[in-house]
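Possible regression after last week's pipeline update?

I re-ran a chain I had predicted before the update to compare outputs. Posting the input and the new output here so someone can diff against the archived version. Not blocking, just want to make sure nothing changed silently.
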Amino acid sequence: MSLARGLAELRAENGESEFEVTLVTQTPRENFDDEALPFPVVRQPGFWKLLRFVRNADVVHIAGPALEPLLLGLLQRKPVVIEHHGFQVICPTGQLLIESRSEPCPGHFMAGHRAECWKCDPALGWFDLDYLGIDQGPIIAMIENHRSDLVWRTMRGNPAIRLGLERAGFTGGWLSAAAAAKAA
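New output (post-update):
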């Protein structure tokens, strides 16, 4: 959720939004306030509605195991980013510190209801106000690389990276093109 919020709030120099984010989820709303988010939330769409969202997407970002949007994204030839965290380890009830009871965190922490986290494992008796952004940085780099080729251009233009790959025995692709350009 923090990645989607961050992307939705990014602004260009002219003040316009850099990204149009729509969160599509099979999770029921329950007590979560979707209106507080800076992007639209579509909950439990049917197959055809999900297909329309995938067709209109530039990037399909899947948080967790979701076979239907994965297959639709691949069939529509969209870039698909799969994010996997197992049992929502972001929850401060200690799922990083204690063995999971094979049940996912119900999402109290991410929904801002931190006191509810105590109910998940009251033996710990603590909660934290910080948010963790595990794996969020590489996802942003992948999205930017898809948009502008910035990461690949930077990597291809770095002599140390090229030399390291060549010394490690990598050949072909842009390394061959760079070698051919050097020889000419």
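Follow-up from reviewer: compared with the archived run. Residues 1-85 form one domain. Marking as no regression found.
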